[in-house]
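Bug #77: duplicate submission created two jobs. Keeping one. Sequence:
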Amino acid sequence: MTAADPLDAVAAVADAVLFEGYLLYPYRASAQKNALRWQFGVLVPPAAAERLAEPARNRTELLLEPRSGATLRLRLRFLQVQQRALVGRDGAPLDELTVDGTPHLAWDEALPRRVDATLRLDELRDRTTSVPIAVPAAETREPIPDAAGTVRGAYVRTTRALTGHVLVSAVPVPGPYGALRLRVEVVNDASVGADEPREEVLRASLISAHTVLGLDAGSFLSSADPPEWARPAVAECVNAHSWPVLAGPEGSSRLVLASPIILDDHPQLAPESPTDLFDGTENDEILSLRTLALTDDEKREARATDPRAAGLLDALDAMGPAMFERLHGTVRPGGRAPDEDAERGGVGPTSSDAIPTLVTPGTPWWDPAADASVDPDTDTTVVDGRPVSRGSAVVLVPGAGSDAQDTFLRGVAATVQAVLHDVDGQTHVAVSIDDDPGADLQAAHGRYRYFRPDELAVPCRESAP
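Kept job's structure:
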């Protein structure tokens, strides 16, 4: 492939998916949260699926409008676990070996793998094509010498054979638009013993499995915000352990990323992010500073744990003050059109540079007790032309532009718990789900789901005059 390969346009975001959770801060083998790795997009061999409660296959379905003679590019990407065993000079297995003050550790690494296929859509109509997945077993040995050149031990790296297949098919969508429903299923066919532990099963698994799809003529339809005519057909699509989003630059429709992590259409990495941190639960600034604060011994262990951890530390050590400034306090202009604000009852700014003052100058906005003008327990906002406040019944109606995971709650009944205002003038409504058995427990901890007023509706019983 060349640098001009269209599928490469998705590589940066796809890599973030591939390595999400690969090695969590503090990046050391001894860290408890790195004892149970490989959480996303795991496809285990069928014999272990039920026992480990992990799937052996995923399914992606979406709509596309191809032109005559269109070609589909498919790229399956995943990680293969590589066991890095450590042995001494006599060949005996070791957990750790220190040579000239440098620790060496046994560890499971991961190798990025990919399977590419080019398929003519005309040949996929009403038939299924199988693309094979075949990775042979391998073993390599890396001697570990001391400063004098004497071999003190070795790393022995082994991988198990991986086998599987990708099933690709397309069926016409009824109607005059010429659309197709594309189905892509990734299946792990590898064999494992009936009682093999999870650690061994993962060495025969596809880790962080996801697919990148490209269309040379035509367009994919958004699964989160399809055109009105396509909504019934999109609602019939079945996506299991994979969620497709439009990828590439905003406005493009010829690339799709089908990911085990739910994303919005056209996901992009923040330009301020300087390196891969493998830990999506932290923001870059905090995680970078915390990593630099590790002790010298902790950094030595992190470097010995994994080559990617060593590269991460090198990258952070090389960051200057200007790079850290870029990570701090970045604000991207937002705002809504005036008519959109009118639909939301006048809540929020009407342009990216119109930020209203919410508190009296000099009032410490971080201390609610010092500002009597706001009270989440009694404040109201407008939904469907009616005021709602704490205790009001609402229905969740997230639409275009909403968080992708929130779309699964469309039509669900909820109760308002608080109306909140942020420092940018936006209104947020905290709600609890009515039929959530854990709602009381979450409320006791102050944990709610948050929606904009335009993502809510008043049920019929509330809207009666």
